[in-house]
Write a structure and sequence with these properties.
globular
Length: 312
Amino acid sequence: MGAGSSRYRQIGAVLRRHGLGVLAGVLGLGGLVPFHRGALGHARQEDPYTNPEHVRVALEELGPTFVKLGQILSTRHDLLPAAWVAEFAKLQDDVAAAPWEGIRDVLREELGADPEHVFAQFDPVPLAAASIGQAYAATLHDGTEVVVKVRRPGVVAQVHEDLDILRNLADRADRRWDAIRQYDLPGLVEEFSRTLRAELDYLQEARNAERFAQEFAHAARVRIPRVHGETTTSRVLTLERMSGVRIDDLEGLDAAGIDRVALARLGADIVLTMVFDNRFFHADPHPGNMFVQPDGALGACQDFCVSGLVSV
């Protein structure tokens, strides 16, 4: 295992700890084992852990690579029961936040000054924390409200190490497990690796967002946030702030008077236009990235990093 052996041990420890919780749940003993009171290092909470909670917390503890896997699973209603999808959906924008001190250091290194000087206002409490970065509300000196995405400290080395481990495990499974060979695990891991590595570079995401804006410049009901290049680097991305209702907040959509049938048609039109006309598409449109504007327009607010060219 080489230099990554400590990471293998860490992954194994997390899986063993939460695996025992899942096993207890399967046997109907989850309520009798006090995992929620801190047993075996679990975080304390009022109610007993459910099996989906055990797995979601394990993914979160394992870090960005595994959180991204959970985010992907959160969109697969065709594969998972509703309770599991709902739990994994918490990983879309409700991941434990990295400490402000480390984020502040990244901002200072990338922008050349403290955030209080670069921006007219900067709220150190994150709007959202996701697998690769965290989003903060800020105001430019001209009064423009923006969202500043900051890449988590140390995430690049962690992701690269985890992807190497996943590739190694996929190769082993492919060689030793006949039943799994039909799914081409090494190929799936390679595709996942390309996508996740692209997410690490916010300059690429900025370029993709700008291209999307050009592609949909004449689409009145599609809103792509403007990139503010003067405060954007490979580790910091500053975007125009958009307000709206999350696309999966059905009660919120109804309360805002949004025609959900028309919204569904708009979403389908956008996907078909991206794939068949533009051949350049947003490949991570989970609900945490899609917000509906008061007039029914759809705003794709972040995570353009996994968008890319596709041959159709």
